[in-house]
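Show me any protein, fold above all:
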Amino acid sequence: MGKYYGSGGRQAEQERKSSEPHPVWRGIGFLIILLTPVLGYSAAMLLISENTKQGWFKIPADLIYRGGIDFLPNDPLLYVKAILTLVLMFIIYFLLQLIAMILYRLVAPPRYGLYDVPSVSYKGKKRSR
């Protein structure tokens, strides 16, 4: 039992407080979770509609939905929409995370605190064997 800390007093509170992320970052993460599927689906619909106008690539016949499952809508481009939405979701998620990492790097607290000392790179004495 230390003279200054007692039985878990300030030190436990300080450790608990430092391990939680800032509420702003939790809010940003929540927005990323909500925006990623919405943006992925809207971008997929935009790409599919532009593909029908421009004819950039031909959709393979294996990806055409022929209505075998009762509860799914009878849309021939269902598989294409689902695959394209997932791919675009991963790309958008990666880009949003990259932006969040750059912002965090800009506004993050310094790596070393007031009483921290950077580690010394000491390789030791060379010895022959």
